[in-house]
Amino acid sequence: MLRARFAELAAAFGLLTRLPVGALPQPPDAAGYARAAWAWPLAGAAVGALGGAAQALLTAAGLPPALAAPWALAAMLLASGALHEDGLADTADGFGGARNPARKLEIMRDSRIGSFGALALVLSLALRGGALAELAAPLPAMAAAGALARLAMLLPLLALPPARRDGLAAGLGRPPLAAALGALAVAAILAALLLPAGAALLALGAALAGAAALAALAGSQIGGQTGDVLGASAVLAECAALSVLVALR
C-alpha cells in the first residue's frame, strides 16, 4: 500500500513537473497517473514554493520585488516545464482562432503560437508577476496557490468527456472518486496550513470558480476537455487565487 502511494506521488511529480523523481517507484500503467490525482496539489505546492522562495530570497538580497518577480516566475517555469502555459496558449489559440470544434481542436494541436495564445501568456505572466511583487509572504502564498491550481485541473477532467480519443487527457481517463476527494483534502489542508483561514477559503473558491468557468467554455467550444484545457485551467485558477490573496493582504 505504501509503495503504491509513493508510486502515485512520483507519477504526480513526473506528470506535472520536471523535478527529479527517479528514486521513487513509477506506476505500472497509465491508469496509475489518474489514481495519482490526490498528489497533484503536492506537485503544484512544490513548484509554487520554489517560486515563492526565489522571490523571498531575491528581495532579501536587495532586488526590488518587481524585478525579483520575473526571476521567480522563471524558476517556476523551469520546474514545471511550462506545461500548463503551453496548454493555455494552445487553448486560447484554438478557442479564438476558429468557429467549428474540429478546426479548434486542429489549431490546439499546432505547435505554433498565434496572437490569442501570445496574449494569454503575457496576461497570465503579468498577473502572477504582479502578485509576486505584492505578496508580503510569497513562499506560503505561492505554495498554496500552486496546490489549489492543480486541484482545479480536476474540474474539467471530471465534468467533461474527452474532446478527442487520443491525447493526454484521454489517456489519463477519469480519476477515481477517492483520488479526487483526496486531492480536495490535500489542497484544502495545505491552504489551511499556509494561509489565514478566510483567505484559504476564498482562494479555494476563486481557483475552483476559474476552472469551472473554463470547463463551461470548453464544453461549449469543443464539446469536452483536452490536456491543453487542463493546463489552461491550472493557470487560470492560479491567477484567480493569487488575485484574491493580493486583494486580502
From TrEMBL:
Cellular component, GO, one term: plasma membrane
Per the record, the pathway is: Cofactor biosynthesis; adenosylcobalamin biosynthesis; adenosylcobalamin from cob(II)yrinate a,c-diamide: step 7/7
Superkingdom assignment: Bacteria
Return the Pfam families for the record: CobS (PF02654)
Grouped into one coarse class, the protein's main location is membrane
Q: A single Gene Ontology molecular function, please?
A: adenosylcobinamide-GDP ribazoletransferase activity
Q: What is its EC number?
A: 2.7.8.26
Q: Which HAMAP family match?
A: CobS
Q: Its function?
A: Joins adenosylcobinamide-GDP and alpha-ribazole to generate adenosylcobalamin (Ado-cobalamin). Also synthesizes adenosylcobalamin 5'-phosphate from adenosylcobinamide-GDP and alpha-ribazole 5'-phosphate.
The protein's name: Adenosylcobinamide-GDP ribazoletransferase
